[in-house]
Amino acid sequence: MLLDVTNLTVSYDKAVLLNNISMHVDEGELVSMVGPNGAGKSTLLRTISGLVAWEKEITRRSTQGDIIIKGSVIFNGERMDQIPANEIVKKGLIHCPERRRPFREMTVLDNLMAGAYLMKDKIQTQENLDQVYQLFPVLHGRSKQISGTLSGGEQQMLAVGRALMSTPKLLCIDEPSTGLAPMMRDEVFKKIMEIKKLGITILLVEQEVKMVFTMTTRNYVLSSGKIIAEGTGDQLLQDEIIRKTYLGL
Asked: Fewest 10 Å CB contacts: which of 41, 46, 111, 163?
């Protein structure tokens, strides 16, 4: 088991964003987290990767209210829930955020190298760059281009490529198809499958359920901050209530 999340609860002021979430990802799997908008999928990824700060099961004050996080996240046998986000990256748990978010004023190459900021091994960094260019030849051809001028699909490829520069053991990808034309969306999903074939474990948050279910080992359905179902794509699609109520199919 590479990732083990147990009894994870995240509340903000009086709103419970995640309610007693327990899930796992085994090494080599491609696991999806699907569900309606506002279900808590992105919050889950952000909490796992340390982007939502933890405070030993006590309240963290904010200007808007209180954030309370309880439970545990174990990655590769180590507790992650008390480790800063930059230390989590060093251990190989990498978050590729939703809506791509490149450094728009920087070149494609500079964005990719930013993904390797914590890497100390120059040889490994070059190998990672070569691998990214092999996966995404368009990025190689546009390495000197300003990232903000790329198309949406190219920016998504850049976001995934930047995440790969950190040598992930687990790659968490959040909503990669958002805002993409169907042809480019299909290309991005194809590349995600190629990444899995490289031996990289993937946790994927996505809305395109039909496409995702053809790719994944297992799937979790999240709704209103709770996991309400788990199974293969075929198993979930056979459940009429899950299919109509939570997947919109």
From this structure: 46
